[in-house]
Design a protein that fits this description.
Order of helices and strands: EEEEHHHE
Low-confidence stretches: none
Number of strands: 5
Shape: elongated
Distance between the termini: 21 Å
Largest sheet: 5 strands, antiparallel
Radius of gyration: 20 Å
């Protein structure tokens, strides 16, 4: 898994000194299906990203590029955003129920720990942004 990358096509919307501002179009797995117009499950939405790169001057506005990161970063993001909070809620719920707290108190307390968890993530966002690095490259090149 080391060395593998996650890639997305994107469009450059702004270029600055050392930054490239891109819009990534995220599509669900069924976005290319011919029946997506009849199905409520199809979805797509745009995500804007500012990517720091010393090669920003090589990109131009309106150009299609590829945004990529290591697969390990994607797995780490899933752990931080989904698995860890789920385990935290489950653990606290089971502990409170075993301690004899009522179901309502246990449930509300277990869910309220999510507020604390996501506030901590918000406070640590600058540190996390240094760990989760995205890179950008032209579509016809391997690395930039």
């Amino acid at each position: 898994m080391k060395g593998e990358v996650i890639t997305h096509r994107a469009k450059v919307i702004h270029v600055a000194d050392n930054y490239v501002d891109v819009v990534v179009l995220s599509e669900s797995a069924c976005a290319s299906c011919h029946a997506k117009g009849y199905c409520g499950a199809a979805e797509s939405r745009e995500k804007r990203m500012v990517i720091e790169t010393p090669l920003a001057s090589y990109f131009s506005e309106g150009e299609e590029v590829e945004v990529y990161t290591e697969t390990v970063m994607g797995i780490k993001a899933v752990w931080i955003a989904y698995i860890l909070p789920f385990l935290l809620v489950l653990f606290l719920l089971l502990v409170l129920l075993q301690a004899g707290c009522g179901e309502l108190i246990s449930g509300v307390s277990a869910l309220s720990v999510l507020v604390v968890y996501y506030v901590i993530l918000y406070v640590a966002r600058s540190r996390l942004s240094r760990e989760f690095v995205f890179k950008v490259r032209k579509l016809n090149q391997q690395k930039l």
